[in-house]
Amino acid sequence: MSVDKIKNKIITLDEQEKITLLFRTMGDSTRFTIIVALFESELSVTELTKVTGMNQSAVSHQLRVLKEQDIVRFKRQGKKRIYYLADHHIKTLYEFALMHVREEKHES
């Protein structure tokens, strides 16, 4: 493939920065635990504190970060906010990452 064709396939700097921020956000172990919990069910802050073992303040802070990056969203149920994943792409990223770390590595 020619250099020009390769250059044309490279994404924009803006897209690169957004992808980097997404991976950085998901790369935090606390946030990652919350994301994995939300794969299973929509959960309130109280439920997330029980599932993750974190205190309410820590969970709320991490949810705010995840919401700012459009990884999670919430809906209201009475006075409670119920959090859920913004879309299926987040779980797909997780599944591909899991396949990657579980695959057998071969020396070249």
Overview of this protein structure:
With 108 residues, this protein is α+β, with helices and mostly antiparallel strands. It has one domain (3-102): Winged helix-like DNA-binding domain superfamily/Winged helix DNA-binding domain (Arc Repressor Mutant, subunit A, Orthogonal Bundle). The protein has helices at 3-9, 13-27, 29-40, 45-52, 56-68, 88-102, and strands at residues 43-44, 72-77, 80-85. The longest helix is centred in the N-terminal third of the chain and has 15 residues, at 13-27. The radius of gyration is 17 Å and the shape is globular. The two termini are 24 Å apart. The relative contact order is 0.12.
Descriptive labels:
single chain, 108 residues, Arc Repressor Mutant, subunit A, 65% helix, alpha+beta, globular
Question: Outline of this structure?
Answer:
The protein has helices at residues 3-9, 13-27, 29-40, 45-52, 56-68, 88-102; strands at 43-44, 72-77, 80-85.
Low-confidence region ranges: none
Strand content: 5-15%
How many individual β-strands?
Answer: 3
Average pLDDT works out at 92
CATH fold topology: Arc Repressor Mutant, subunit A
The CATH homologous superfamily:
Winged helix-like DNA-binding domain superfamily/Winged helix DNA-binding domain
Number of domains: 1
Question: What strand order characterises the main sheet?
Answer: 1-3-2
User: Helix share of residues?
Assistant: 55-70%
Backbone CA Rg: 17 Å
End-to-end CA span: 24 Å
Biggest sheet record: 3 strands, antiparallel
Can you tell me the overall shape?
Answer: globular
